[in-house]
Amino acid sequence: MSIVVKDLLKKYGEQVAVDHISFSVNKGEIVGFLGPNGAGKSTTMKMITGYLVPDAGTVHVGGINVADDPIATKQRIGYLPEANPLYYDMYIKEYLEFIAGIHKVKETKLRIKDVIELTGLTVEQRKKVGQLSKGYKQRVGLAASLIHNPEVLILDEPTTGLDPNQILEIRKVIKDQGQHKTVLFSSHILQEVQAICDRVIIINKGKMVANDTLANLQQRAHSNTIRVTFREPLEAEWLQRMKHVQSVEKINTYSWRIQSPDEGQVRKQLLELALHHNLNIVSLQTEGGSLEEIFRNLTA
Question: What secondary structure letter does DSSP report for 104?
Fold first, then answer.
């Protein structure tokens, strides 16, 4: 079961929210969907799930055109929207039973028990939804998106309002689900995306600016920065006098960050420097661009 988005366009009056973007997500893949506020992430997710009709382009879920058969595609999708819609006057089990009924889930009680355990709602399961903290309300929304065991998960900011421990728990749930489902996952917590996603799609002002594995993005964003740590302290000017060095930054007494367009020459000079001054190099490595740096460079 896959998602295939082709040449998708959505306008609000004169404003272009999503500008002819195309991508695909395969079964067993967790793809991070990133972009600044207003970039078009939520609009794209709503079009994939059939809640918004695109002005142009197509979306296929499991080979089915969403425009041709929105009901069939909704049956295959578990969707947690950014604004989590819940009935606050219902008890948790009552709400999940209501959602299960919409999806015509068989063995409803057993399935509700399973998703309550899966999303960590066991200790709160006897409460009304309105009595829950924001984090637990988010868990109820995730449980509702999983109740019919969908083949595709569209998760828009699923860890909003969760504390660090809860984030780790829900992260594990998403990773486990991603082993046999197709998952498109939006988040502003870049460390979270880095921890669970196989691939990253970044959009900015409605346009797609990146679609690749994190490793490839980091390699392309290679900042020509070398980090070296010595066992002994040394003078900054020793590093600054080396050829091809653009800048030297002191991290602490023993570690330095050096920028250079010629990494190979700087590495060679560092070894010569250590030998000449009787220094011991503890570590010498190239720093790739972090996801934060990549995101900032592509969306600034």
Answer: T
Whether this prediction's pTM lies above 0.85 is answered by no
Tokens 């009935």 found at: 87
Q: What domains appear along the chain, each with residue ranges and CATH number?
A: 3-212 (3.40.50.300), 222-288 (3.30.70.1560)
Q: Are 11 and 17 in contact (CB under 8 A)?
A: yes
Q: How far apart are CA 25 and CA 6, in angstroms?
A: 12
**Residue 93 to residue 113: CA distance in whole angstroms:** 9
Token reading at 56: 């142009």
Can you tell me the distance from the alpha carbon of 5 to that of 25, in angstroms, rounded to the nearest whole number? Answer: 9
Rg (CA), the chain: 24
Kindly tell me the burial class for residue 85, based on how many C-beta atoms sit within 10 Å of its own C-beta (0-12, 13-18, 19 or more).
exposed
pLDDT in tens, 88-112: 999 999 999 999 999 999 999 999 9
